[in-house]
Amino acid sequence: MTQDAIRIAGLKKTYPGGKEALKGIDLAVPAGSVFGLLGPNGAGKSTMINILAGLVLKTAGKVEIWGWDQDANPRQSRAAIGVMPQELNLDPFFTPRGALDVQAGLYGVPKADRRSDEILRMVGLEDKAEAYARTLSGGMRRRLLLAKALVHAPQVLVLDEPTAGVDIELRQMLWENVRKLNRDRGMTIILTTHYLEEAEEMCDEIAIINHGALVARDSTANLLTQLDARTMVIEPESACSAPPDTDAIKVDTRADGTFAFSYRARETSAEAVLEHVRAAGIRIRDVRTEQADLQDVFLSLTRSR
Ligand code: ADP
Ligand code: MG
C-alpha cells in the first residue's frame, strides 16, 4: 500500500494580531514512515501540528488525515490522529487511568475496546495508574501525554518535541516506544525535535521549515548526500603546524594531531585540498573524508538571510 498518511496543500495560518506563522505549506507524509519536521524556534512547527490535531484553526488550505478531509470529515480525520503536544496540559485532579478514561470517552472508544492497562504498561506508568497527575514528575507527565495520544489507536501519531528537556532514560523509553509502534503496528510517526542527531537516527524522511515556509523535503539519506559540505582529515607523517586557512578551505587542528579541512565540493576539489597540504610542505601519512551531518544541512537551509 502506498498511501499518504497526511496530505497538506496551501496551508496558511495567520494568528490574530497578524503573525503569519504558516505561509502556504504543501506536504505529504507517506503512510508507515517516521517523519521528522524540523526547523528553528518559531518556524511554525507547533502551529502546523496543532492544526493537524484540530487545536488551532487554519486560515487557508487543505488538510487530509488518512484520506479524510479535515473540513468535510472532521470526526474521521480526528480519529485517525493522536497528538502528544509540546505543552504539559494535564488536569492535575485526574489519575493516569482517569485521564485515559476521559480521553477514551472523548474519542468514543467503547469500554470493551479500551486498553488502558496495556498503554500504561507500555509507557512505564503502571505503578502510577492511581496517582494524581499533580504528584507526577515532569517525565511521568510526558509519558502520560504519550499514553493519552494512543488511547484511540490512531493510524498517525504526532509528537511535538517529545524529548526537549527530558532525561536520557525517558528519551530512550520514548524512542523505543516510537520504534515499536512504527515497526509492529505500522503506525505513521511525525515528530519534531531540536536534536538533529535524533532526527538523523529516527527519521526516514524529513521536512525542514523556516519562517513558515517549507525549505526542504527529502529522505534523510538524500538530504545528507545532497549537501556539498565536505571534511577531509589528514594525518601528517610527523608532527607539524597546520597549513593556513584559505578563502575556500578552513583548517582545524584536532587533539590527535590530525588536520581537518572543511570545504565545499562545488567550489573546491579534493585535489585542491591535497595540493594546499603539499604546498605547505606536509607529507601525508593517511587521509579520510567525513560525511556532512544533518546539522550542516539544517544550518545551510535555515541560515537567516
Ligand atoms: P515552532 O513550534 O516551530 O517553534 P510555533 O508554531 O510555535 O513555532 O510559532 C510560529 C510563530 O507563530 C512564532 O512566531 C510564534 O511566536 C507565533 N505564534 C505561535 N502561537 C501563537 C499565538 N497563539 N498567537 C500569536 N502568535 C503565535
Ligand atoms: Mg514548537
Task: Write a structural description.
This protein is of the alpha/beta class. The strands form 3 sheets. Strands 6-7-8-3-9-10 form a 6-stranded mixed sheet, with helices on both faces. Strands 2-1-4-5 form a 4-stranded antiparallel sheet. The protein has a 4-stranded antiparallel sheet with strand order 12-13-11-14, covered by helices on one side. It is elongated and about 75 Å long. It starts with a strand and ends with a helix. 34% of the residues are buried. The mean pLDDT is 90. The site of adenosine-5'-diphosphate has 12 residues, from helix 1.
Briefly say what this structure is.
The chain has helices at residues 45-52, 74-79, 96-106, 116-122, 138-150, 168-185, 196-202, 220-226, 270-279, 294-302; strands at residues 4-14, 20-30, 34-38, 60-65, 68-69, 81-84, 156-160, 188-192, 205-210, 213-219, 229-236, 250-253, 259-264, 284-290.
